[in-house]
Design brief:
This protein is α+β, with helices and mostly antiparallel strands and about 400 residues long. The protein has twelve helices and 16 strands. Helices cover about 35% and strands about 25% of the residues. Bound molecules: (2S)-amino(hydroxy)ethanoic acid and manganese (II) ion (2 copies).
Length: about 400
């Protein structure tokens, strides 16, 4: 089966789990569809001749044993955002299946073992934690930080993990990964704009995410004069305006997103007494991101004070920007050149499991273009020819690393 047929074959199988009526996926950590997908993927790994096994928390590992010492790993995350596309994360797993299948058919047993990792969770879209999968692979997980967290329906992280048959890793031992190459969609429009086929990633952006609670006073919409209100929605609106305009003015690649908001009691004729909202801000340079974040935290406190509101700021994610491994970047560049692929050396504006792996093992990423730069959206798409080129580069890079 040529590469595009192989990609379609695996994409169809995995996209059935968490499939949405109008297309796209919602497949959140420790849900039934997440568990069924991991179990089906384990069967596909075994069909390829891999030894497949879960770790304690639900990461899935498919291994082709090499004739010598050492291991080379690839993979990505199996979870998605709510109403996400079929490619973010999943494409890195499909690409790993296709690349390893073709390597085995062409060259037989590798010298170094080849390992495909389906990471349990990366997005942070069900529970307020991110990189749960990769942090556990590398022994970097913080069990204390997740033991009391709940999803938006109030379901407890630990109960959901147990319900799927998984549990905390008892130690902080890192699993042997060797080196890690992640194939992923770009999720932006740079490759499309530059008319490039492949992205070779040199760094992954830093990210800070917040949960913020504004508390004012719920009151009657008709009898409460504007001057007497403690309106949480007004405070939120002032914060959004100030932060987004500051990001625009401060730096063209600084990004700040107010992705979720909840007004309480969320009723047409009641002045909102409370507003709970999220903030996601990112930049590839640590000190630009830190400067923006401290301005943001000060400004939010100031606006709350001016409007007579109480404020609680919870910075639950703070990931530094991470450079990729120089030698691995060079390997991908040289392999792309050998294959005649026109590639762009670029940073990633999205966070990825590779930024966690890069703390411990030589790591690099391959991007393929996203049509219209759309992602985290059911219309996320990449031309199959581009997907095939990504798989081909991954296959050849893994060949150089393990045969
Ligand atoms: O949000 C991100 O950057 C990634 O898709 N989790
Ligand atoms: Mn994502
Ligand atoms: Mn992703």
């Amino acid at each position: 089966m040529e590469i595009i047929e192989q990609i379609k074959h695996y994409e169809k199988i995995l996209s059935a789990y968490g499939a949405l009526e109008g297309g796209g996926l919602t497949r959140l950590l420790y849900t039934d569809e997440w568990l069924e997908c991991q179990k089906r993927l384990k069967e596909e790994m075994e069909k390829l001749g891999m030894k497949a096994a879960f770790d304690e928390v639900g990461n899935l590992f498919g291994l082709i044993e090499g004739s010598e010492e050492g291991v080379v790993s690839t993979g990505s995350h199996i979870d998605t955002v709510v109403r996400g596309g079929n490619l973010d994360g999943q494409f890195g797993i499909v690409g790993g299946l296709v690349a390893i299948k073709n390597l085995l058919e062409k060259y037989g047993r590798p010298k170094k073992s080849l390992q495909l990792i389906s990471l349990a969770e990366e997005e942070g879209s069900r529970f307020p934690t991110v990189f749960w999968g990769s942090k556990n692979v590398l022994g970097l997980q913080d069990n204390e930080a997740v033991k009391d967290i709940k999803d938006s329906e109030g379901l407890n992280f630990v109960n959901e993990m147990h319900r799927c048959g998984f549990d905390f890793k008892k130690d902080s031992k890192a699993r042997e990964v060797g080196s890690f190459v992640e194939l992923h969609i770009e999720q932006g429009n740079l490759l499309e704009k530059l008319n490039k086929e492949i992205g070779v990633i040199n760094a992954i952006t830093g990210q800070k995410r917040y949960r913020v609670k504004l508390r004012g006073q719920a009151n009657h919409a008709g009898t409460t004069r504007m001057e007497y209100r403690k309106d949480a929605a007004y405070g939120y609106a002032l914060i959004v305006k100030a932060a987004i305009e500051k990001a625009i003015e401060m730096d063209p690649i600084l990004v700040c997103t107010f992705g979720s908001v909840e007004l309480i009691p969320n009723t047409v004729n009641v002045v909102p007494g409370e507003c709970n909202f999220s903030i996601d801000c990112r930049h590839p340079q640590g000190q630009v991101l830190d400067e923006f974040a401290s301005w943001l935290e000060e400004t939010m406190v100031q606006i709350a004070e001016e409007k007579g509101l109480e404020i609680e700021i919870d910075k639950w994610m703070d990931e530094r920007p991470v450079p990729m491994d120089e030698k691995m970047i060079a390997l991908l560049e040289n392999t792309a050149k050998d294959l005649g692929l026109n590639y762009e050396l670029m940073h990633s504006g999205a966070g990825h499991d590779s930024q966690i792996f890069a703390e411990k093992v030589p790591t690099a990423m391959i991007f393929v273009p996203s049509i219209g730069g759309i992602s985290h959206n059911i219309n996320e798409a990449t031309a199959y020819e581009d997907q095939a080129r990504g798989c081909l580069l991954l296959e050849n890079a893994l060949y150089k690393l393990s045969y």
